[in-house]
Amino acid sequence: MRKSLLTGLVLSLLMGANVNALTYFVSSNGATVNSAALDVGVNYTIEVSGQWSFHYNKWFADAEYFQNVTMDWNNATEDYPSDVPQNLELLVDGQDVDWLGTTDGVNFADDIFSPTHVYRTYVTGTGSAVQFQIHDTFYGDNSGSLQVDVTKTPGDAVPEPATIFLVFAGLAGMAGFSRNKIKK
Questions:
Q1: What is the DSSP letter of 111?
Q2: Is 14 left (phi over 0), alpha (psi -120 to 50) or beta?
Q3: Which 3 state secondary structure label does DSSP give 110?
Q4: pTM recorded for the entire structure
Q5: In a 3-state reduction of DSSP, which class is residue 150?
Q6: At residue 175, does pLDDT exceed 70?
Q7: What does the pLDDT read at residue 168?
Q8: How far is the C-alpha of 113 from the C-alpha of 74, rounded, in Å?
Q9: Average of pLDDT values for 163-180?
Q10: Which H or E run contains 9?
C-alpha cells in the first residue's frame, strides 16, 4: 500500500513537470503553426532547433542563418541577397526575431551563429496563441522543418490544478497510512 502511494506521488510530480512545455514542428512549405494560448503575463522561452533545405536541397537554413554559395553561414536578415526582408527566417507572429544563438549550448546571445542550430527568444504571454512561419520568397524548392519548443521560463512555471490535487492526494494518503500504522 505504501509503495503504491509513493509511486502515485512520484508519477504526479513527473507528470506535472511536463505540463508547461509544448513542441511544434514548422514546415518549410510556408504553412503557419499556431501555439496554444500563452497565459497572460507569464514569461516563456521559445527555443527553435534544426535546419531545413532550400533550392532543391542545395543549401540550408535554420531560424536565423542560411548557407550561401560558398557554403558559409550568413545572417538571413542582414546578408540575404533579396529585397524581401526576413527572407529565410523563422518568423514569430509575422515579425522578424533577433534569435539568440549559442556556441556552447548554455549561453545565448544576439548575432551568434549556433553550430548546433539551436536558438532562443523570450516572450510574455498575452492570452493568445503565438504564430510561427518559415519565410521564403519561393516555397516550391524547400524541404524539412524546424522544431519549436515553447516552455514557461523557470520561476514562472505554475503547476496545473490537477497536478496540485494529485500531489496533495498522495500526501494525504501517506499521512493517513502513517496515522493508521501508529495507532496499531
A1: T
A2: alpha
A3: strand
A4: 0.72
A5: strand
A6: no
A7: 57
A8: 8
A9: 56
A10: helix 2-17
pLDDT at residue 80 is higher than 60: no
pLDDT, residue 13, reads 42
- On whether the CB atoms of residues 65 and 111 are closer than 8 A, the answer is no
User: Is the per-residue pLDDT at 171 higher than 90?
Assistant: no
Cβ–Cβ < 8 Å for 146, 64: no
Report which residue type is found at 72: D
CA-to-CA dists, residue 1 to 5, 42, 116, 173, angstroms:
6, 39, 47, 10
* The three cell numbers locating residue 108: 545565448
What are phi and psi for residue 146, nearest 5 degrees? -115, 145
Say yes or no to pLDDT of 92 above 90: yes
Amino acid at 27: S
Domains of the chain (ranges, CATH numbers)? 1-19+159-184 (no CATH), 21-156 (2.60.120)
Q: Which amino acid is at 161?
A: P
